[in-house]
Amino acid sequence: MKTYIPKLGDIKPVWHLVDADGQILGRIATRITNILRGKEKPIFTPHMDTGDFVVVINAAKVKLTGKKDDQKNYTSYTGYPGGLRVEPVRRVRERHPERLVEYAVAGMMPKSKLGRAMLKKLKVYAGAEHPHAAQNPMPLK
After folding, report:
1. In which band, very low, low, confident or very high, does the pLDDT at 141 lie, cut at 50, 70 and 90?
2. Distances from the Cα of 14 to the Cαs of 38, 40, 82, in angstroms?
3. Which CATH architecture has domain 14-64+96-128?
4. Mean pLDDT over all residues of the chain?
5. Distance CA 87, CA 19 (A)
6. Which helix (H) or strand (E) holds 100?
7. Neighbours of 31 (CB within 10 A)
8. Which residues contact 44 (CB under 8 A, 6 or more apart)?
9. Is the whole-model pTM more than 0.70?
């Protein structure tokens, strides 16, 4: 048998709508990652972008289990001495609640050009409104 490699014309992305209200962050992030990568499609190929677009609404209402609101920190390093930036989850949720979902999904994507290209198909909004109604996103269970 020959291995099937999809052609660019065979890949037709679909838009999905995910409501994060009351969902657990890690569980919803794994589902979103699989959709962005295209792993739920029969034409999945690891070296091609066969995934779909995902619109996440109500990202401010996503749940974290345990004491993560108090104990989890996001760190970034500027590259300069003393440039370690540490920001607790509580502050990220107050300032930019959509970044919680973005950071969780980005951590599960491949660390390559292809992974960064797939991550651009993720649209996250803190509230229930989104500007992608024209694409008719299908609600995800």
Report:
1. confident
2. 10, 12, 44
3. Alpha-Beta Complex (3.90)
4. 95
5. 26
6. helix 98-108
7. 18
8. 37, 38, 50
9. yes
What CA–CA distance (Å, rounded) separates 24 from 77? 28
Tell me if 45 sits within 8 A of 65, measured CB to CB: no
User: In angstroms, rounded to a whole number, what is the distance separating the alpha carbons of residues 48 and 46?
Assistant: 6
Tell me how far apart the alpha carbons of residues 19 and 139 are, in angstroms, rounded to a whole number.
8
Terminal-to-terminal C-alpha distance of the chain: 35
Instruction: Say how far apart CA 16 and CA 28 lie, in whole Å.
Output: 13
Residue 140 near residue 18, CB atoms below 8 Å:
yes
Q: Residue 137: pLDDT above 90? A: yes
pLDDT for position 50: 94
Token pair 């295209």 is found at 38
Q: What is the largest CA-CA distance in the chain?
A: 57
